[in-house]
Amino acid sequence: KADEQGRWQVKVQTPTAGGPYTVAITEEGQPSITFKEVYSGEVWLLGGQSNMEMPLQGYRDQPVYGSLQEIVHSAEYPIHWFKVHRHSTTTAVDTVKHSQWKKSAPDNAGDISAAGWFFAKQLSQALRVPIGLIACNYGGSSVEAWMSPSKLQAYADVNVPGPGEAIPVVNRTPSTLFNGMLNPLIGYAIKGCLWYQGESNYQHPDQYADRFAALVADWRTRWGQGDFPFYYAQIAPYDYRILKEAGYVNSAYLREAQRLAESTIPASGMIVLLDEGDSTCIHPGNKAAVGERFALLALAKTYGWSSKGLLSPKVKDVTFEGTQALIRFDEAPVGLSTFGKPLTGFELAGSDSLFHPATAVINKGGVVVTSTAVSQPVAVRYGFTDYLKGSLKGANGLPVSSFYHSPSIRLF
User: Fold this and answer.
1) What's the gap between Cα 382 and its chain centre?
2) Least confident of 14-23, 49-58, 224-233
3) Is residue 21 part of a domain?
4) Structural domain contains residue 347
5) What are the backbone dihedrals phi and psi of residue 151, each rounded to the nearest 5 degrees, phi first?
């Protein structure tokens, strides 16, 4: 039954994945309404900022590697996409304007989220079903911009503008992108969400994990689908001093906040990009790595494929014995490797909390770390700088996240 504005909604049992199907709506004595080119498959929401938004054709002077061949062959895959147009507002809206579903083809594929494209391509090949992508992202946006006003009430330092009030920064003002872009999507059946965001919050790592977890919980509550999968990308290495020398904060702390969040958010997972950063460009060009790692994560944790060999190794535990730190890993069933590159990026600290460069050696699926400058280490960290090319990987080629471990020091 339609409401006063003529709006109506119906829930139907979706058919077997495939298509195109035709849906006809009929009423005795009334003209029928027919929807054609309807597909049934897996729909994923793409959230975040510019690294998720980055189109397959790339940004100006910032290419996506291999994009030309992907665009040329885009019609060969059952991938459909819907881009939510940018809209920042202090009042929640319930409709999306100027947007429509498109079937991937050479004349439109250049505008698809590159990370989303490579995810959908690998997922469609693995599952042999159509994939739908809903791109709801905005370059430079903060996590607070995507949070609802009610959820942000818990944070005294956050000022949510009321209806009609000024929006100082369109992509970072609290709740404005939630109101204008996300709210209209709530209720659309999705399989899960992919999230690539954090660069705009790198200066406040102490706040990020809590607010990100609050965002996830709020979105899930509003969707009413339970704990749908929420997978996110750890921000890639980049020299953030280019953006802000004054008040500079080491972005490794934001990466650490993201790493720790995975253990506190149910049905979540994080892909690691420590080997894919660019010191001078915040938009790394290898978006195939992003999308394909998201697909491996989804296959392992959502679609019932064995996780062995599909995920990045994770620190299991750290033991300090004399002059050594001994690190063991989960999700490394056939061990670790640097694939012929030097194993660098490790540091040790003693009771004075001063970190020194350390030597690391892979041994029996773990890593042994020592430093001539630290006789009794009590803390170890890896990749804890803005920019590096992470060399420690699982034998499957997936990188280990940067990390910080100390039994006596809690970062957040």
Assistant:
1) 21
2) 14-23
3) no
4) yes
5) -70, -30
Boundary residue ending a domain (249, 280, 301): 301
Amino acid at 19: G
Strands 379-382 and 336-337: unpaired
Which position has the token pair 């006063």?
4
In 3D space, the residue among 412, 67, 74, 54 whose CA is nearest the CA of residue 233 turns out to be 54
pLDDT at 344 over 90: yes
Tokens linked to 65: 């590697």
For residues 121-156, b (16+ Cβ closer than 10 Å) or e, as one string? bbbbeebebbbbbbbbbbbebbbbbbbbbebbeebe
Sign of CA dihedral 84, 87, 88, 93: negative
Would the pLDDT of 245 be above 70? no
CA-CA-CA-CA torsion for 382, 385, 389, 395, nearest 10 degrees?
Answer: 20
Q: Give the closest residue to 56 by CA, choosing from 119, 122, 139, 112.
A: 112
Q: Do 379 and 274 fall within a single domain?
A: no
In total, how many domains does the chain have?
Answer: 2
Q: What is the pLDDT, as a whole number, of residue 246?
A: 65
From the CB of residue 385, how many other CB atoms can be counted at a distance below 10 Å? Answer: 14
Q: Is the peptide bond before 20 cis (omega within 30 degrees of 0)?
A: yes
CB 321 within 8 A of CB 295: no
Q: What domain range is 273 assigned to?
A: 40-301
Q: How confident is the model at residue 335 (pLDDT cuts 50, 70, 90)?
A: very high
Q: In whole angstroms, what is the distance from residue 97 CA to residue 118 CA?
A: 26
Question: Are the C-beta atoms of residues 188 and 159 closer than 8 Å to each other?
Answer: no
From residue 230, how far is each of 20, 153, 357 by CA, in Å?
28, 23, 36
Taking a C-beta distance cutoff of 8 angstroms, is the pair 265, 379 a contact? no
Q: Cβ distance 272 to 398 under 8 Å?
A: yes
pLDDT digits (tens, 9 = 90+) for 393-405: 999 999 999 999 9
For 105-115, how does the pLDDT look when each residue is reduced to its tens digit (9 = 90+)? 999 999 999 99
